[in-house]
What does this fold into?
Amino acid sequence: MQTLYDVGGGELAARIEAWGEPAYRARQVREWAYRRFARSYDEMTNVPAGLQARLAEGLPFPRLTTLREVKSDDGLTRKRLFRLEDGQLVEAVLMLYDPRGDARGRATVCVSSQAGCAMGCVFCATGQAGFERNLSTGEIIAQVTAVARAQLDAGAQPLTNVVFMGMGEPLANLPAVWPAVQTLNAPDAVGMAARHITISTVGLIQGIRRLADEPLQVGLAVSLHAPDEALRERLIPTAHRYPLPAIIDACRDYVAKTGRRVTFEYCLMDGVNDGLQQARGLAALLEGMLCHVNLIPVNPTPDGRIGRPPRSRTLAFQRELAARRVACTVRVEKGVEISAACGQLRVEAAPRALLDAAPRDETATQPRVGDLPAMRPSPLIQP
It folds into this structure.
């Protein structure tokens, strides 16, 4: 059943007019939903009770239950585990940045686009847990509004950015993700600037090309994690479907068509992909492209075999890229102590029976950790 968050402003207005109500009621409803973050129609004091009842029956609010919320020691990272109406579990992370720092007081929410993920990345808790299903547009928007409402109730900083970097592969669910982006951007809805919205992908080539043709100037982040095809296929078992040369070609075309920079995410794993030779290979791969590399020391997962490199090794990798004129930074580490990486809280908190009972996509290629190159334990498991 469609929910309020699943329909755009035009469709909502058409429905309301078909019920004999003036079109401006749709603007009122959307203001309550996306600016005041109402939880129900009952809160909409300037909307007639009869229309409230009709909307509640025909376009209910999505059912999203917070099962657990955890906060980092400094209070700047907060992770929520949500239960959807059918019992599936997804996560969203709020990341606050000190206004005295370079981030200028950003409040970013990282949302999920799927319950689980079929990409199978061996260093990702979501990838290790498997794929359940795509989220609807309404279920995606509901994560944003739940976090935004909590900020509003606390008198805290409003959201400034949304990143599709939570559970799932956003470009594998673009029919639901893109309408969510449009609602986030729409002036009569959330009204967030497109440049404050980022979509991440493991490298779905057709999806990258589709984004290049869209008028909204959303950010694109591509997860590489390796400078060569062989290693990348060990880290991302489904990567053979999206060859690295084709991904880079699509990204170069994206830059040429949009004039916008591509961010490449590179998760550093101790003794796996963090060597200087690999840094040189990455620099050669990206030579001449308008891009930025975001180096991310891996968050430990329950598997335990993949560790974080020492800080000195991370910085050496960064220096090697910089020496070859590749713009790069080491991501500020947030929420390690609260399992803020994708899927970790879901795996830790979810009842095993619930996860085992949920339907799974048995056709998705799953990782075999034994296929990884030899790894040594990481000396740094915490920041």
Q: What stands out?
A: The longest helix spans residues 137-153.
